[in-house]
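Newbie here. two chains, one complex. Structure please?
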Amino acid sequence: MTAAVAPADTIAAGASAAGRRALRLARARGIVIAALGVAAFGFANATMQEQATFSFWIDQQGGQALTIPITVGALWIVTGVLTGIFGLYQLWRGASVRWRLWLALVLPLWIAATIGTLLSGKPATLTNLFAGSLEYAFPISMGAFAAMICERSGMFDIAVEGKLLLGACVASIAASVTGIVIVGPIVAAIVGMGVGLLMAWLAIRYRVDQIISGTVVNFGALGLTNFIYLRILQLNTDLNTPPTVEAIQIPVLSHVPVIGPILFAETPYVYIAIVTMFVLTYMLFRTRWGLRLRAAGEFPQAAGTVGIDVIKIRYRAMIIAGALAGFAGSYLSLSSAGSFQMNMSAGKGFIGLAAMIFGGWNPIGAFGAALVFGFSDATQALLSILGVDVPPQLLTSVPYLVTIVVVAGVVGRVRGPAMAGQPYEQA
Amino acid sequence: MNALRTRLRPIVIPTLAIVAAFVVGSIFLVLTDIDHMKSLASDPVGAIAGSLGAVGHAYMALIIGAFGDPAKFAIALNGGTDKQWATAIRPLTETLIAATPLIFTGLAVAVSFRSGVFNIGMDGQFILGALFATIAAIALKGAPMPIILLVALVAGMLAGGVWGFIPGFLKARTGAHEVITTIMLNYVASQVVLFSLRLEFLRQSNSTQPISKVIKDFVQVPMMLPLPGLRLHWGFVVALLAAVVVSWLLFRTTRGFELRSAGLNLTAARYAGMSAGGSIILAMVVSGFLAGLGGAFQVLGTVGQMSNDVNAGFGWNAIALGLLGGLRPAGVVAAALLFGALRNGGGLMQVETSIPLDLLVFLQALVIMFVAAPGLVRTIYRLRQPAPEGGAPVEEGAAA
């Protein structure tokens, strides 16, 4: 009883082995963070003369701009001071600090300061950076939603990648053949549903390990789409020149200064992702369907005992997930790229899985995580457009490394559905 | 008769799986045969027959490319010269060369999957093995050849091992799912390779392609056959030895027993006092060693020059052939020979019929699917369910 009411740092002072370890960890964290704060002052010293110009479009692309000129050194000083305070506070208070919240405050400053340094005087338009983050986040967030529905129902879905790729391929062909844009996403979603059904059938009917069936789909999709590209699309380019999905300006909102061009002048995909996020949150946590879905993933035997058809729920979940992932794939070929290219998903499906874990199997969290990955992609695009002298390989690796760090739980250990990936025997 | 049936049982499902995959593959070939399909409305019989003929032609080229042309064998057998013999057996030796990296990566799959760790990172481990073998070779240029060779092989093996250790360690310490971390590390590895191949130290100076200096001139795994024009090197034999070692490690040592126990039931293994984390890390490191060594042999023996596509999907093929071989070292070798034949024959098929090699990737995915779902194969061929027996961990759909 006393342990429960004592302040956290008294527990950490040595009551238990776990407490001691937490304290040691917190101390180490504090030292590292404080050292980073000092390092920031070092950077400040080197960049005192450097000017950075961040600007935002006020009303529309190429119109009037809101420009924020700032000395990079000053930015580093602010970063250093805050990071130092954070580190010292962490050292002083030990394990009781809500360090993740602090991290969320300090990290953007680090990113801004780093970008400012890398730009070395070149002016950057941040409207495109933020709008681009939303765009890039789309396939990742949809992939995360798809995988989330599966895992909540007790199925692993590592095949998001393959479904994205197949979706991209068939969407391009369907839209090119018919000449109607909307056909692409619809056909992609239908193909995705078919793949989801196939995977569910293999896993449930034939007890194929879900990791293996996922690998089959990823691998098969890569082989099949490459094959189709080389055998058909490369020679018949008319089958791979789809009409593209254009950005839609939302009437009033897109004229809100600064925010309008970022949030309300996107392709429909972005709006769909945001709507899906809210709908899915509601569906998962506020409807009977969601309750049953989660029961099937957490404790299928109990769900089965009260008469819920676990098998049916899992089939349905896999089909819905397939539709979402296939639809997301259509973005790849119909939006920015304008045609299907070999292996154009480039790991986005796997990054979606990481976003799902990062977001704690929760739609809003996953969307936030996808935005982080999207931001990293957009930054990369910005830096390469401006011709900043950073090895492109290093920049390309960043999202992958972030994924590893995220999955390894440095950002915090999260618990997924208990029975994900376990076959269920229906009585 | 009954004994024979028992002996043949492990082969039945894989064989039928391959046949089924090829049948599905030919359906796709027919469907994607645009030229013939265009005349489907006017002349359906001719169109179907024509495209089926094309499929037959393609599969024929595949077989000849993999095993050699009987006509050339006939010439060689009638008192042929060295050169004629070389021409006749060249496709066969090329198949063995293609199988060599597949044996290494397939063994890597067998070790990790048997231990319950889904190492999908063979691609990265393989390519880094190749990269570090190249770096070691170029750094030691001028030293006696056997020393360069040995150091380069060890360097490649260690590089693969390190790349396997990272996800193993993360899995053991933080529970990070190895499927995601290894795939991410694959992407990182290919970026590391692209980055390294731009360095002055490695770069082929007069080329804009991401390729390294040619190391064939001063280091080369010795050749097995004295005939001209044949590239078969002793790496193939080392691969076979590696299969023996892996077999011994998995089935004859305490460590191997622990690994397999962890693969069958991690919780039970832990209660029996085995270190679960240790097993995961060990399995990943050994797996990485094998893949890295495969990469080293590929660059030191077969291609003689590092490039960013030196891995050419060996890592992915490995998963298919590992499962096809039932995760048994002997099975892996057999499956690797088959896939080597496909890969090598696919080259001729691509040249003769311009059917992309990627068809084989798709076929391999189908093979994995059919092998992983024995029930599906039995349904297709209307086979009876065999008497239950203890199967390999992943085949019967045990949880990861």
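Moderator note: Chain B touches chain A through 51 residues (CB under 8 Å). Residues 389-400 of chain B have pLDDT under 50 and may be disordered. Thread marked as resolved.
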